[in-house]
Amino acid sequence: MDIRSLASFVAVAEELHFGRAARKLHLTQPALSQRIRALEHEIGVELLVRDRRSVALSAAGAAFLPAARAAVEQVELARRAALRAVRGEIGQLRLGFTVIAFFGALPEAVRKFRTRYPDVAVKLSEMNSPSVENALAMGEIDLGILHPPISTNLITSALAPQRMLLALPARHRLAGKTTIAVSDLEDEPFLVAPRAVGPSIYDRLIGLFQRAGISPRIVQEATPATTLCGLVAAGAGLGFVPEGIAHAGRPGVVFRSVRPAAPSLPMAAAWRSPSLSASGERFLEIVRTVTVRD
């Protein structure tokens, strides 16, 4: 049964006038009449009683109208839902992110997205950067916020990087300095994230020490950065953390810049080719807005 014929019948039943119904449907009156006749032929009953002056519902038409109207309304609801899905306004967004990312603009972006698109279910998964990369490659998440460079064939969009700051115990001998020379860190115990978690930033931090003519004394590997801060507070050593972690603060820990400056930690949004989902695009628009403002 053609939904257009049902919509034509509903329009005539509501207007009780073929001319007004035809204008409402943007049809010619003969075309509308043909649809009604085809529908009546298919059902096998007369739905409308018409003469030269008036149109009325037959008993069969009155019985048929509620179901026909409901069918037309359901199709319209389905059409609107499909359009909203294409625009990324309904559905699901599976978002993977690192701990570091969630200490930046990401929480505000998630809040804004949920407010703007309440019919999109957001599933949040915290993991380290290589795990985000792997989850994207396996199709387990739609969008990831991670730290390039990446090794798999993903599409990336750069976000604002985070500066790296030195975390040290509040009672440390260098804690009173605003900026600490890297050369002053010789023989200090250092905490670092495992190289497997972030080989690029690991190598660049080691290079920072080497250019100052010293070799860092690494006493422990620690991840994520929040755990590293906890170990610094416990007096286990010093370590570099992103500025988002530093801004959150940690009792017993101070954060200082170093000279020469420490390398920044790159941030990027990533997804699997060929294209990002519509809801992912909407979320990424908000992330960029929040990042630019910050």
How would you describe this protein?
This protein has a five-stranded mixed beta sheet, sandwiched between helices. The chain has a four-stranded mixed beta sheet with strand order 8-12-7-11. The protein folds into three domains: 3-86, Winged helix-like DNA-binding domain superfamily/Winged helix DNA-binding domain (Arc Repressor Mutant, subunit A), CATH 1.10.10.10; 91-160 and 266-293, D-Maltodextrin-Binding Protein, domain 2 (3-Layer(aba) Sandwich), CATH 3.40.190; 164-263, D-Maltodextrin-Binding Protein, domain 2 (3-Layer(aba) Sandwich), CATH 3.40.190.10. The longest helix is centred in the N-terminal third of the chain and has 28 residues, at 59-86. The chain has 294 residues and is α/β, with parallel strands linked by helices. Helix 1 crosses helix 2 (18-25) and helix 1 crosses helix 3. The protein is rod-shaped, with a radius of gyration of 32 Å. Helix content is 45%, strand content 24%.
Mean pLDDT over all positions: 92
Biggest β-sheet: strands ordered side by side in the sheet: 4-3-5-13-6
Category by helix and strand content: alpha/beta
Unreliable stretches covering 5 or more consecutive residues: none
Our estimate of the beta-strand percent is 15-25%
Q: How many domains comprise the coordinates?
A: 3
Tally of individual helices: 11
CATH first level of the largest domain: which class? Answer: Alpha Beta
Provide the helix percentage. 40-55%
CATH topology term of the largest domain: D-Maltodextrin-Binding Protein, domain 2
Query: What is the number of beta strands?
Result: 13
Rg over CA atoms = 32 Å
**CATH architecture grouping of the largest domain:** 3-Layer(aba) Sandwich
The CATH superfamily of the largest domain is identified as Periplasmic binding protein-like II
Largest sheet features: 5 strands, mixed
